[in-house]
Amino acid sequence: MIPVSVLTGFLGSGKTTLLARLMRDPVMGRTAVIINEFGAIGLDHDLIETSDESFVQLSNGCLCCNVRSDLTQTLGDLAARRAQGTVPPFERVVIETSGLADPAPILHALMTDRDLSGVYALDGVITTVDALLGLTTLDRHEESRRQAAVADRIVITKTDLDGARTDDVKKRLAIVNPGAQVVEAAQGAIAPSTLFDCGFYDVAGKHPDVSAWLAHESGPHDHAHHHHTEDITSFCIVRDEPLRAVTLPLLLSALAENCGADLLRMKGIVNVREDPQRPTVIHGVQHVYHAPVWLPRWPSADRRTRMVFIGRDLRESWVRALIELLDAEVAAETAKRSH
After folding, report:
1. Sign of CA dihedral 295, 297, 298, 303
2. CA distance 169 to 173
3. Which of 101, 144, 234, 283 might form a disulfide with 39, Cβ 3.0–4.6 angstroms?
4. This prediction's pTM
5. Domain spanning 2-218, CATH architecture
6. Domain ranges (residues) in the chain
């Protein structure tokens, strides 16, 4: 049986950073990765080093809303290709859900699908919780509480940042899921042995609601209760023209000031005019924006700037205009100084 681990956690809680660090460990060399992103364009695959042959990207919506048609088919296809020798003989599967995923239908499919049960076994659920914003997120978003409640391992991220409330987050998680093992990870650094090989998934010791959620998935319904797509929207901005380096901190500052908690997540890989051979990665979660990080090289042949925005009441036209305005102002100021 091939163990399957589900990596979940709310938007911006550090799932991709954690997975990227894990996949650099030699122990994870025979791991197939399935990534689900909320939005038309995915970026996480460019930020995680893994074999193209054992990587699958699902970006046509949230996985929990398409679990039967997408997840089961994907796992079935992977198993068939493994048997045929057309993909490396992976020995583990990690599924990274979108930050808005309700994990219950995903777990139910893995635990009950007859075709999958002969090949795969649900090993455990790993949930990331942000030490900076975790308390607020748990209060405001039911998806976050569900993600924490079903976990076997909870990883508290961003514990090294100013303002981290690690102890308070631990106390809250002890109420949400008293049976989970809680560990800390700064910048995603943690040993794979700490997170995997949890054993057969068992709801014992978890919040009583978990059993009810899984039982609900057994009944006939159309997943209409996964309503997040109705009040949370996403859009992508793609640019062929590079941005100027100074534009990026100005953009992040403007987003933090004007959008606040309504911008649940933004991330992007940016082609910078001053250094076109090295892209920079930008991240933001609500009102917290991190300094741009330079990659040593482009991870793929696609060198366009790609930014993904997820939030409430966000106007794509406003964000596009803001980017154009800021970059134009930087260009004008640069030209003025050069003369």
Report:
1. positive
2. 6
3. 234
4. 0.72
5. 3-Layer(aba) Sandwich (3.40)
6. 2-218, 233-338
99-129: b (≥16 Cβ within 10 Å) or e? bbbbbbbbbbbbbebeebeebbbbbbbbbbb
Per-residue pLDDT of the chain (339 residues; tens, 9 = 90+): 899 999 999 988 988 888 888 888 888 888 888 887 654 445 555 544 444 444 555 444 444 445 556 788 888 888 888 888 888 888 899 998 888 888 877 887 787 788 887 888 888 899 999 999 899 999 988 889 889 988 889 999 999 888 899 999 999 999 888 888 899 987 767 888 888 876 655 555 565 665 555 555 555 544 444 444 456 777 888 999 999 999 998 998 888 888 877 887 788 889 999 999 999 988 877 777 777 888 888 888 889 999 888 787 788 899 999 999 999 998 888 888 876
- H or E, element range at 57: strand 55-58
The residue count for the chain: 339
CA distance 234 to 311: 7
Q: Which CATH number fits domain 233-338: 3.40.190.10, 3.20.20.150, 3.30.1220.10, 3.30.390.30?
A: 3.30.1220.10
Sheet of 233-239: strand order equals 233-239, 305-311, 263-270, 280-285, 288-294
- Between CA 9 and CA 6 the distance in angstroms is 10
Q: Specify whether the CB–CB gap between 146 and 103 falls below 8 A.
A: yes
The alpha carbons of the chain give a radius of gyration, in whole angstroms, of: 20
Per the CB < 8 A criterion, the answer to whether 170 and 201 are in contact is no
